[in-house]
Structure formats: structure tokens, C-alpha cells
Design brief:
Keywords: DNA-binding, Transcription, Transcription regulation. With 295 residues, the protein is α/β, with parallel strands linked by helices. The protein contains 9 helices and 12 strands. The chain is rod-shaped, with a radius of gyration of 32 Å.
Length: 295
């Protein structure tokens, strides 16, 4: 196709060969082969000059279009090769999307500034299904460690912590035990049934709270209520990464209730380098915010 269009543009087999950096016999052979396959004469000799036929003129427009498409495709392949094309679609729980994910995205963007990044929030129990159905490439969620599965990549294991006002009597304790907490001041979070069941399994009577208790289905609301002095709350330690902590303190909660930050992934749809950079950005952020993994 390129040889044909070059001959048409330059009007000479010799000039086309020189332009393409190949021998003239190769150009002549290519044109002859094209004419044989099409069953058409593309060029005629008129008084020693190479003159294109009417059919060649008709074919040229389409040949140039295809040539441009192939050139565009080659450029696209080069962009993919160097991660200048493509997009990573990430879903995360609301708390992770608001606090943790922007820190990860900043690191990822520093390494791959031309790669697309889409960040959305969804409920914890929806994340794995959204990735499985192909709506997202990566999903980040927090689950009880006992619920870990082979199809979920464990990024870090952690625990439930207690969030308190700095002036609270328990704020200086090495850890907060359930027996230390006045149930009347506990702000209950009802976001995810699995985490609620984790708390209820580890804390006798957790589900039997009084009617006057404060409840919310958002971690961010619970933390803001604590900041307003309305009580204390129990959250996983990943949720409060980079949360506005002025006036607050976090203490380990006892009994220890283990949770895991996990990644749902469809590796067949994600460029390996983009995935590696995103995963590295997650681990770097976790190390900066929480320190090295325990044990």
C-alpha cells in the first residue's frame, strides 16, 4: 500500500524506490503483484513516462485513508507500549475514596502522568462484584480478615481502632477495651454488614444498643460527630488514613478485631506496568501513613 501511494505521489518507480530506501526492482515487483491480485492495470507507459490509470486514481484515496489509519494504529501501539494510552478504573469504599485514594492517586500520577485514572466510590459489599462484571479494573475494600478469599489480593492486615476526642479520659490509654466504654457515648456505624457482624461476634451485646444511641451509615459522619464531642466510635484503621484528625486521637481497640484492606482485580484488562505502579503507590502510602506492616 505504501509503495503504491508513493509511486502515485512521485510519478516514478525510481523516485519511489529512492524515497522508500529500497531497490527499484522491489518497487516494480510490488506494483506488478498488486496489479495481478486486483486484475487491473494501475500504470501505463506513455512516451517513456509512468502514467496512472483511472482505476489507480480511484484506489489512491482509499489507499491513503488506510495508510493513515495504519499510521495512527502504530502511534497508538507506541502509546500503549509507553503507557501514554489507557485508563485505570478504580472503585473504592466511600471512606477510602475520600481519604486514602487521593494519596495513592498522587503517587501514581507522578510515575505515569499520561495514563488515565478514574476514581469512584461504592459501598464496601459492592466492590468485588463491580470488578467481576467489568465495570472497574480495580476495587479497594475493607473486610474482616476471616473473610479473605483467593480472588482478593490482601494489601495490608489491620485492626479496629477507637476514635476519641483528645480530651476524653480514655485518650491516653494504651488501648481501649470494650469494658471501658460507656455504651451511651458510642456512635454506631452501620455501613457494612460484614464489619458489623465482626464487631458483634467479638463484643457480647454489641447489637443490643439502646434506642437513644447515635447511628450513621458513613464513617466520615461518625468521625465528625466525635469531633463535635458527641461520643466515640469504632472504625477500621484504614478508613481514617488522612482523615481530618484535629482534636481527635486513635487508640487500638480490645479485643483485637482483625480487618484486611483488599484489592479486587481483573488483571486481564489492566496493563501490567500500570497495575504495578498503582499497587506500589498503595504500599508506599500505607507505609507512610501506618508504618511498616506488623509481624
Amino acid at each position: 500500500m505504501t509503495i503504491f501511494s508513493t509511486v502515485m505521489r512521485l510519478g516514478s518507480l525510481t523516485a519511489a524506490a529512492t524515497s522508500l530506501g529500497i531497490a527499484q526492482p522491489s518497487v516494480s515487483k510490488s506494483i506488478a503483484l498488486m496489479e495481478h491480485r486486483l486484475g487491473l492495470r494501475l500504470f501505463e507507459r506513455v512516451r517513456g513516462r509512468l502514467v496512472p490509470t483511472a482505476e489507480a486514481g480511484l484506489i489512491l484515496g482509499e489507499a491513503l485513508r488506510i495508510e493513515e489509519e495504519l499510521s495512527r494504529f502504530d502511534r497508538y501501539l507506541d502509546d500503549v507500549r509507553h503507557l501514554r494510552a489507557g485508563q485505570l478504573r478504580v472503585a473504592a469504599t466511600p471512606a477510602l475514596a475520600l481519604n486514602f485514594l487521593p494519596l495513592v492517586a498522587r503517587k501514581f500520577r507522578q510515575q505515569l502522568p499520561s495514563y488515565g485514572l478514574s476514581l469512584d466510590m461504592h459501598l464496601n459489599h459492592e466492590i468485588a462484584g463491580l470488578v467481576e462484571r467489568g465495570q472497574y479494573d480495580i476495587g479497594l475494600a475493607v473486610i474482616p480478615s476471616a473473610d479473605e478469599r483467593e480472588d482478593l489480593m490482601v494489601l495490608r492486615r489491620g485492626r479496629i481502632v477507637c476514635v476519641l476526642p483528645q480530651a476524653h479520659p480514655l485518650a491516653t490509654s494504651p488501648a481501649v477495651h470494650w469494658e471501658d466504654i460507656d455504651p451511651a457515648e458510642l456512635i454506631y456505624i452501620t455501613t457494612d454488614a460484614r464489619l458489623v457482624m465482626l464487631l458483634s461476634a467479638g463484643i457480647p451485646g454489641f447489637l443490643h444498643h439502646r434506642q437513644s444511641a447515635t447511628e450513621t451509615n458513613r464513617y466520615s459522619i461518625a468521625v465528625r460527630l466525635v469531633r463535635q464531642g458527641m461520643g466515640i466510635t469504632l472504625v477500621d484503621e484504614f478508613t481514617i488514613i488522612d482523615a481530618e484528625a484535629e482534636g481527635l486521637t486513635m487508640r487500638p481497640f480490645e479485643p483485637e478485631l482483625k480487618v484486611s484492606l483488599v484489592m479486587a482485580l481483573d488483571s486481564k484488562r489492566v496493563a501490567r506496568k500500570a497495575l504495578n505502579e498503582f499497587t506500589t503507590s498503595i504500599h508506599l502510602t500505607l507505609d507512610e501513613e501506618l508504618g511498616s506492616p506488623r509481624g
